[in-house]
Design brief:
This protein has nine helices and eleven strands. The chain is α+β, with helices and mostly antiparallel strands.
Length: about 250
């Protein structure tokens, strides 16, 4: 979470804006949105940390006391059970968000993606990518390993430096090229970029970045909506995808 947000929250929470008694989760959400209208609060629920709500704000896990007074950001550990409560909470949230991510990705048009289709397609991954990202380049250099294993790669744009950045301009050149596949490869492998401009979907892709709470690239969304944060080699990815398919088949019987 951006430092200004952290400091702003601390200033608010210790400035006397306190309501007597516990607030509902909806009241906490409304209070935060009133103070920070641009803050994207995706999820809020009771935490296993007694007396606190767990809140996902702009993709980060924070804890807020139920009276709305104190804000805590950091790792919570249950020392008796030796459980990382942050990990447990984020895992639960990811399970909740998979259907949402799946639906949002399905609503996109493939015309707004850069697609490298596997000839013998078994699986499809949707990759939020940045042009100035070492592991994004690595994944792209190894794209044939994915395609040979039946994994189609669909790219969405995620310029981490923002829509006004040089990265966003480079991505615009790719999305506005007549041959997007060649432009993507030229950019990621040869560092050669098109200067083309046009109406493009990059801002819409960034809305999903914020909604999904993505923090880095590549961010890979699987067919069931599960999220993999970071690069995986093709031989690991195919195992992940095949196991996912087996679980789905077992659940359907």
């Amino acid at each position: 979470m951006k430092k200004f947000l952290l400091f702003g929250c601390l200033a608010w929470l210790f400035a006397g804006q306190v309501v007597a008694g516990d607030l509902t989760s909806q009241e906490i959400k409304e209070l935060m949105k009133k103070r920070f209208p641009s803050l994207n609060i995706n999820l809020i629920n009771d935490s296993k940390l007694p007396g606190f709500y767990a809140v996902e704000a702009d993709g980060d896990l924070i804890y807020i006391t139920k009276d709305g007074r104190y804000f805590v950001q950091g790792t919570a550990i249950d020392m008796e059970k030796r459980i990382n409560l942050n990990h447990e909470q984020t895992t639960a949230w990811n399970n909740l968000k998979s259907p949402m991510r799946k639906a949002d990705i399905a609503a996109l048009s493939e015309d707004d993606m850069v697609i490298f289709k596997a000839p013998n397609e078994k699986h499809v991954i949707t990759v939020f990518t940045d042009i100035d990202c070492g592991y994004c380049r690595k994944l792209h250099r190894e794209r044939q390993d994915y395609l040979d294993r039946g994994i189609t790669i669909r790219y969405l744009a995620f310029p981490r430096a923002g829509l006004a950045s040089s990265s966003a301009k480079k991505l615009e050149g790719i999305w506005c090229s007549k041959d997007r596949q060649t432009a993507m490869t030229n950019g990621k492998v040869k560092q050669k970029f098109s200067q083309a401009t046009c109406k493009n979907p990059i801002a819409e892709h960034m809305k999903l970045v914020r909604k999904f709470g993505l923090g880095g690239t590549p961010s890979i969304v699987l067919e069931n909506g599960d999220l993999i944060g970071g690069y995986q080699p093709a031989e690991i990815m195919i195992q992940t995808l095949d196991n996912m398919r087996l679980r789905q088949q077992a659940a359907s019987h």
